[in-house]
Amino acid sequence: MNQTFAVWVVIGLSLVTANLPFVVQRPFLVLPWTQAGEAPQPFWLQWPMSALFFALLAGAGYLAWVLIGQGFFVASDPASVALFLGKVLFVMGAAALLLAYPGWRNRGRVISKTFLDRLLELLAFYGLVGTLGFALEANVGNTFSHTWEFYAVTLSLFVVLGYPGFVYRYLMRHRKPRAAASPSARG
């Protein structure tokens, strides 16, 4: 895989995933507290479900690291290219299915996410995209050691990439849908 192509894949995926928490109203995470509009669940069930969800999310990151980062890729062989792209699509599909579960669980309900919920989703997407970036880095060549400065800069860049979604959600005016006029009011 070309290093430039891998960098642009990570940047494009960062742009999309940084804006998702702000643009989409469906929840992406199983949180240990009840969000507005969710069906109430007992306290003893919420925390283990949330812990299981985040463990599965970490497992998806580890799966990306194993399948993509430690895989063998030869760009000149078409079978190797197809296998590598299949692995990438499989990992992305598994993560997408896992992140779609909270929305599926609350289907038919209007969930109102707070800013904290959106911020946690943003951090989860940062972790997933970062894991994919590390896996692609390991696949391209040698991995480099990263200090806290690297994580501070990349998190800042990820938040900046999410600014259009933040503007859409919190700074733009949204028209409220008109209520349908009652039959008696029409005359």
Give a written overview of the molecule.
With 187 residues, the chain is mainly α. The chain has one domain. The chain has helices at 3-23, 43-69, 78-105, 115-140, 148-161, 163-171, 183-186. α1 (3-23) packs across α5 (148-161) and α1 packs parallel to α6. The chain starts with a helix and ends with a helix. The mean pLDDT is 83.
Rg from alpha-carbon coordinates: 20 Å
Order of helices and strands: HHHHHHH
Number of strands: 0
How many structural domains are formed by the residues?
Answer: 1
Poorly predicted segments = none
**Count, helices:** 7
How are the secondary structure elements laid out?
Layout: H1 3-23, H2 43-69, H3 78-105, H4 115-140, H5 148-161, H6 163-171, H7 183-186
Helix pairs in contact: 1-4, 1-5, 1-6, 2-3, 2-4
What's the quick description here?
This protein has helices at 3-23, 43-69, 78-105, 115-140, 148-161, 163-171, 183-186. It is mainly α. The protein is globular and about 60 Å long.
List keywords for this structure.
187 residues, mainly alpha, 7 helices, globular
